[in-house]
Design goal:
The chain is α+β, with helices and mostly antiparallel strands and about 250 residues long. The protein has six helices and 15 strands. A hairpin with a 4-residue loop joins strand 2 and strand 3.
């Protein structure tokens, strides 16, 4: 065989092999899957409870708070039946038929004495976050832990970048730690040395004109739809709702 032809064939084969391997290499490189982005979805808690020792309604006409419950710690579930009937039951027990004063009511205030205790934690993005036991979300029979933003802020733990909505709503960490009012999670907390105060503003005020009849008609309910942001891939949830809807009506 002609040497030139022989070396020509060898060169073509070598080039072909190089091209083939380079193509395989490119294919292998491009086929590598990039890390999946967190699968974030909004959701409504399965349960969301608040313990309280005192309940008050704000009478704007008289510029004063009217106590409707004060006594043993009372649990309010805002999710079951939208919390309908829970406030009213405590009010009837405490007032024992005593009617509300005349006037227009605009707010509901719940006060709970502070009890410090250890909370569970969850790891996410290389950090450890405290978990709230008040909020539960269950998906396919599995409980997904929800981060306690109030404690995270108190402990100076920065929020993950993916939760930008939460970051914008709650502001800078240093500023939040200096304030006694923390809008997280879900509603405004006013933190005193020995107690926590949660205040709701009714979407529409209600007016008591005939105390004996109107008091029995009072209905209060809550709307906490889509206040959670859940990372389904990493099984963790985060509150993003700072302003839940609270409704008060006088119904027959």
């Amino acid at each position: 065989m002609n040497k030139k032809l022989y070396y020509g064939i060898i060169a073509v084969l070598v080039i072909g092999v190089v091209v083939i391997f380079s193509m395989i290499g490119v294919k292998m490189y491009t086929s590598k899957k990039a890390p999946k982005a967190p699968q974030l979805v909004k959701a409504t808690p399965t349960s969301l409870s608040q313990m309280t020792d005192k309940m008050e309604l704000y009478n704007e006409t008289k510029n004063s708070w009217v106590t409707i419950y004060e006594g043993p710690t009372y649990r309010i579930d805002f999710i079951t039946n939208e919390g309908l009937g829970v406030i009213e039951k405590a009010m009837r027990t405490y007032l024992k038929g005593k009617p509300l004063p005349k006037g227009t009511y605009t707010k509901l205030r719940l006060t709970k004495l502070r009890k410090r205790g250890k909370s569970k934690t969850v790891s996410y993005g290389g950090k450890t976050y405290p978990v709230t036991s008040r909020v539960t979300f269950i998906k396919d029979g599995q409980t997904i832990p929800c981060v306690n933003i109030s404690k995270a802020i108190e402990q100076g733990i920065s929020l993950p970048p993916i939760f930008t909505t939460t970051r914008k709503k709650f502001g800078k960490m240093k500023e939040m730690r200096k304030k006694s009012v923390i809008a997280a999670p879900f509603f405004k907390h006013e933190r005193k040395k020995d107690r926590v105060i949660v205040t709701f503003t009714f979407r529409e005020p209600f007016t008591i004109t005939n105390p004996e009849q109107d008091t029995a008609k009072l209905k209060i309910k809550f709307d906490f739809k889509n206040v959670l942001l859940i990372d389904m891939k990493n099984k963790i949830c985060w509150p993003i709702g700072g302003t839940p809807k609270c409704y008060a009506t006088l119904e027959e």
